[in-house]
Amino acid sequence: TWTTPRRVSSNLNTQAFTASVEVNDRGHVGVTYYDFTRDSPTAQPLLTDEWFTASTDKGAHFSTRERQTASSFDMRLAPLTGAGFFVGDYEGLEGVGRRFHPVFGVTRTGANPVDIVSTTARPPFGPSVAALQADATAAAQTATRRSSSRLGFVTSH
Asked: What is the mean predicted confidence (pLDDT) over 55-71?
């Protein structure tokens, strides 16, 4: 069944986009999305990251988000289309066993604008942020955990 839609991204001060939702074999809900948390409006690059959060109680509460990108990438290096910067449509989220496997695009250089990469998000997922989700001020300050050691290449274009 579906509930009323609600926000799961924890930084209320920035735009979150291109979300993927998946349920693993244990019934845990995983969500990935890009956002501009580490970007500065006055900086030239458009710093972007991929994030993961999970719920082990059918979506009632979500874990502290985990950064999936090894480092922020510049979205402005992606090819520009009529709809904006495009890192590709070869991305998504797969739930296998207890784990989740995000697949997403990141930019590298102007000569090789987009690589498709994958990570593995393994339980235990970060602590619940139920209290923070109700408090916009606290939610924007939610701690994050890097998972750069899990970054692996799938393919490149």
From this structure: 92
Output phi, psi for 36, to 5 deg.
Answer: -110, 35
What pTM does this model have? 0.80
Q: What is the DSSP string of the chain?
A: ---------S-TTS-EEEEEEEE-TTS-EEEEEEE-TT--TTSSS-EEEEEEEEESSTTSS-BPPEE-SSS-EEGGGSPEETTEE---S--EEEEETTEEEEEEEEE--SSS-EEEEE--B-SSPPPB-HHHHT-HHHHHT---EE-GGG-EEEEE-
For the segment 66-123, what is each residue's pLDDT rounded down to a tens digit? 999 999 999 999 999 998 899 988 899 999 999 999 999 999 988 889 999 999 998 8
146 has which bridge partners? 67
